[in-house]
Amino acid sequence: MQFMLLFSRQGKLRLQKWYVPLSDKEKKKITRELVQTVLARKPKMCSFLEWRDLKVVYKRYASLYFCCAIENQDNELITLEIIHRYVELLDKYFGSVCELDIIFNFEKAYFILDEFLLGGEAQDTSKKNVLKAIEQADLLRSVPLHGVIQPVSYSAWCELASQHGVNQPVSYSAWCEPASQSVSMV
Amino acid sequence: MPAPIRLRELIRTIRTARTQAEEREMIQKECAAIRSSFREEDNTYRCRNVAKLLYMHMLGYPAHFGQLECLKLIASQKFTDKRIGYLGAMLLLDERQDVHLLMTNCIKNDLNHSTQYVQGLALCTLGCMGSSEMCRDLAGEVEKLLKTSNSYLRKKAALCAVHVIRKVPELMEMFLPATKNLLSEKNHGVLHTSVVLLTEMCERSPDMLLHFRKVCLLVPQLVRILKNLIMSGYSPEHDVSGISDPFLQVRILRLLRILGRSDDDSSEAMNDILAQVATNTETSKNVGNAILYETVLTIMDIKSESGLRVLAINILGRFLLNNDKNIRYVALTSLLKTVQTDHNAVQRHRSTIVDCLKDLDVSIKRRAMELSFALVNGNNIRGMMKELLYFLDSCDPEFKADCASGVFLAAEKYAPSKRWHIDTIMRVLTTAGSYVRDDSVPNLIQLITNSVEMHAYTVQRLYKALLDDISQQPLVQVSSWCIGEYGDLLVSGQCEEEEPIQVTEDEVLDVLEGLLVSNLSTPVTRGYSLTAIMKLSTRFSSVNRIKKVVSIYSSSIDVELQQRAVEYNALFKKYDHMRPALLERMPIMEKTASNGPTEIMQTNGETEPSVPDTKHLPLVTQPANQANDLLDLLGGNDVVPVIQTTLPTKPASAGGELLDLLGDLSLTGGPTVVPAPAPSVPVSQPPFLLDGLSSQPLFNDTSAAIPPMTAYSKNGLKIEFTFERANPNPNIAVITIHATNTTEADMTEFVFQAAVPKTFQLQLLSPSSNIVPALNQGSVTQVIRVLNPQKQQLRMRVKLTYTHKGSPVQDLAEVNNFPPQSWQ
């Protein structure tokens, strides 16, 4: 994989991961052109297109487009599965993930992506392993507040809530919204 | 100083901005705050600030002032800091900046950190954006981690190694020992990344490939792993829609492909497993099809047995019928790759492929079109062409040019009849006329001239098409050319193939004149139509009308048109006796691939497009008496006399454009006249003529190994012959004559003529001038090309005429002393 872009239906970039060295200017140009091309596609069209000398695989999930540029030897169909796996990971982590989650927690979206893919290839094919690694790493970053370790991922929080017999939180974004208990470090 | 605002708060605030300007203002304010915070070396909030900076960077704002801060974060001991720091490095830094080298030490330390997640961060960053210098420095650390028993780190190290190898291929050797037992791991993550690493190594180095194939016996290992995956029961951890670890399966198949390529033993070892995967994989979901796709690619690439290949193509055929358009796309792409090697198998799916032409998706349509053209053959040409022409009618403009070219090519190769061919061309011109490529116009014209019996039909159809629509330039150009050529057939109503239409000369001229004045016509088209009108002056009787049109355009602003009009005018006025011959019917042009028109372009200094140049090929016939003279020379009928024009090639001034015109003629080939009474259709020697063009540059070749000779020396006039062999045809001898004059007076109006026996063919190109200066002050040179296919002894009769000291001189001579090398 050469790069992955996530963008909204209005063309706003939500995430960009580049696996090839390019200047900022080039990245901006590519992003602009590719976003335009993909947004111009009609819904009935297939998920693959040839763009410059690359193959582009894209899929829309709700209001977000997930777009990957792969090399000629790569398998387009399995790339669709990679995209789907990433969305599943986001979904598990954030609990029914929506675009807002990715906007407000973009750094976490990156962390999850970096735990799943490295250099453009999948590191682990087990959903469970990837999620566990992220949760463990999250624990390293959470800060004890009022003597209680605040979980940072939704799944971990649900786990904790069930352990304590407390109602499970509704959604991650609802939780992250300004509440007096806002505990994020950043 | 108040604490910097939180990231999420910033995001919320920025999102409330209603205009771009408002957003920019907020961003600038925050950037200023962040900058001062950085200046104060605030450790507590550095992480927060960099995170905010990264957000603003994603919105498109500059964030380079945060680069060094990222490095500070990476060096921090807090995991939170490191995480954001590494993320910032990956987003803001790239290998072009020297700053990134400062990371190397931090990464090195972190690769040896006690916490595996920190090590993971370092590996990830290195594997994502490490430069070659960094990779060189840190390869050892990566290699160490590749051998660890911690699978979390091992899998990351493998992918990091892939990146290192891509950046610094020489380091590949270093990782070889560590790969030894990678595949005996149980952990799927390690397996997957190991296969990726092995794939990268095999693709990059043929030695490695051999090593893995023969020494490590990779193929049986991979086959075993794959088998286990398929046979093993449900494993919840790796299951995707009922298939066990499809990602790993696909990767293994890809590595098998590389190992089996051009190796019989390996290919055989994997035949069974490939067949198993191909038949047992569940195809209801995308995952299963992804695996099948990879399997098909592998089967087609290795040396598989034919049964397996047929199985693969059938899978592709089934894909074509799948509802999922992605699968159809992938099938078409793969079939395109295999159509050359397994043509018959793919032919079986032809009807499905043709149906895909009607698909809504652009990519699928393009693939289907390419594949359809690849499948056209003599048997299916009629049916296929019907579909393809229908496609041409309705497809998007981006396809039309390619489709039109494809149709022309296919029609040329497999046309069942001339009429069908012409009809097909007509159809393309009328439906996609403006998208047709420029070079197809001369090709089509050449095709039309070749179909002699169809001339009347062709011109009639083209005329009718012109009546409908004059906007498509290629169509208009071909039509006007044809009308110019065959206008007489048009008005005489000679068409056999269909109902002849009643057209008067005036109507035809109306149409052509209409083209001249229309805004839709390009300058090229106007040139075509003017020339066509001119040609009709010998075929129609309304010469006065034509004269009028031609004279109008002699003051046209368009230089091209003006030149033509003036030349044609001159033709009417001064050289009317030559007009019929000049504007005669064109000979049949043989197809000489791309040599023809372009060669003419090169030698002709003019900027005219190629076709009008070929129009100047019509041959000149000199007044009959001269022809007879030479006929008598060598005993009547066994001689092919050569007549050439006497005009210099140098373009003269205004009044001499006609000379230019005829100068073109001689450049493009001296005419030869068949010893027949009337100047009927002359013998065409297209390869010869066109060879003549390419020989021009040979003037100065130093290849002459044949000694020169004196052909004639009398009364102070000496003519020397120098020889060359013409490329590419060794049967052609190129003779350059040099005429010099030792007397005190110039020899003016010098004309050199030659005749050769019948088995030869002669071509005289135009002389450098017709004045041989006195006292050897210069010479007249002229090129003769002799085609001698039977390799007979060369003999020549020459006739010289010139004016010397006021009185005309004429002499005949025989030249027999040709050196043997010139005709052997």
From TrEMBL, chain A:
Keywords: Coated pit, Cytoplasmic vesicle, Golgi apparatus, Membrane, Protein transport, Transport. GO terms for biological process: intracellular protein transport. Adaptor protein complex 1 (AP-1) is a heterotetramer composed of two large adaptins (gamma-type subunit AP1G1 and beta-type subunit AP1B1), a medium adaptin (mu-type subunit AP1M1 or AP1M2) and a small adaptin (sigma-type subunit AP1S1 or AP1S2 or AP1S3). Binds to MUC1. Residues 1-139 form the AP complex mu/sigma subunit domain. Belongs to the adaptor complexes small subunit family. PANTHER family: ADAPTOR COMPLEXES SMALL SUBUNIT FAMILY. The lineage of its organism: Eukaryota, Metazoa, Chordata, Craniata, Vertebrata. It is found in: Cytoplasmic vesicle membrane; Golgi apparatus; Membrane, Clathrin-coated pit. Gene3D superfamilies: 3.30.450.60. This is AP-1 complex subunit sigma-2. It comes from Oncorhynchus tshawytscha (Chinook salmon).
Automatic annotation (TrEMBL), chain B:
GO terms for cellular component: AP-1 adaptor complex. Residues 704-819 form the GAE domain. Belongs to the adaptor complexes large subunit family. It comes from Oncorhynchus tshawytscha (Chinook salmon). The gene is AP1G1. GO terms for biological process: intracellular protein transport; vesicle-mediated transport. Pfam families: Adaptin_N, Alpha_adaptinC2. Its main location: membrane. It is found in: Cytoplasmic vesicle membrane; Endomembrane system; Golgi apparatus. PANTHER family: ADAPTIN, ALPHA/GAMMA/EPSILON. Keywords: Cytoplasmic vesicle, Golgi apparatus, Membrane, Protein transport, Transport. This is AP-1 complex subunit gamma. It comes from the Eukaryota.
